[in-house]
């Protein structure tokens, strides 16, 4: 769990920067840096506010649920709202943990991603294709651009290997934690028997510094 005071400092920093930038008196040499920080804080602000308000909202909803004077419909709505609030808290906490990590000098750079089939034969190549399509959807949702560098297809219409670049804002900071070996256990479409595991390797690096180890 992230200390509330630490999250409150994120909100306070956003408010402070907003006031400073609105004066129009920021030194030109610092303007770009502070504007970028402000933009990053603005993106995380909704998650920070929801995280800070969670305990109070949780208490209020529990009071509604435990009050026997309330009708069943109100209690049911409060229970659903509490369930949603708990799920959102977990999502917000994950976002905030990433945001609060020490910044990598490559975080803002565009990224090259490599996904390769490992153990599992043709079924592993289908897993690679599934992962690639998943990343395509994520990038589309975030407004990032994908450019294919190379693809090696398999007989099963999967990918033995796919290499692509991702272009946009703060790409590496988001994708770098995915690097490693990924595996799936499922009923195969290319074999009569067996359920895996089917394995592929994923790695990403900036164009400046290649870091693949898988």
Automatic annotation (TrEMBL):
Query: What Pfam family is a match for this entry?
Result: PCRF
Tell me which UniProt keywords the record has, alphabetically.
Coiled coil, Methylation
Q: Peptide chain release factor domain location, by residue?
A: 63-178
Q: Show the coiled coil region(s).
A: 51-95
Q: Name one GO biological process term.
A: translational termination
Q: What name goes with this protein?
A: Protein chain release factor A
Instruction: Name the source organism.
Output: uncultured SAR11 cluster alpha proteobacterium H17925_23J24
């Amino acid at each position: 769990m992230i200390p509330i005071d630490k999250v409150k400092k994120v909100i306070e920093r956003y408010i402070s920067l907003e006031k400073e930038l609105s004066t129009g008196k920021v030194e030109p040499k610092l303007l770009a840096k502070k504007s970028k920080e402000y933009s990053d804080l603005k993106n995380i602000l909704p998650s920070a506010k929801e995280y800070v308000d969670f305990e109070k909202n949780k208490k209020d909803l529990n009071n509604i649920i435990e009050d026997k004077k309330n009708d069943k419909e109100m209690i049911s709505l409060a229970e659903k709202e509490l369930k949603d609030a708990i799920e959102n808290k977990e999502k917000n906490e994950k976002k905030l943990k990433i945001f609060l990590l020490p910044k990598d000098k490559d975080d803002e750079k565009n990224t090259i991603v490599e996904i390769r089939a490992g153990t599992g034969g043709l079924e592993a190549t289908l897993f690679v294709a599934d992962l690639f399509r998943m990343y395509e959807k994520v990038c589309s949702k975030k407004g990032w651009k994908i450019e294919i560098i190379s693809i090696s297809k398999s007989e099963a219409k999967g990918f033995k290997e796919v290499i692509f670049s991702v272009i946009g804002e703060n790409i590496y900071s988001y994708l770098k934690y995915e690097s490693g070996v990924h595996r799936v256990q499922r009923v195969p479409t290319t074999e009569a028997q067996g359920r895996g595991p089917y394995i592929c390797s994923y790695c990403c690096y900036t164009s400046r510094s290649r870091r693949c180890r898988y």
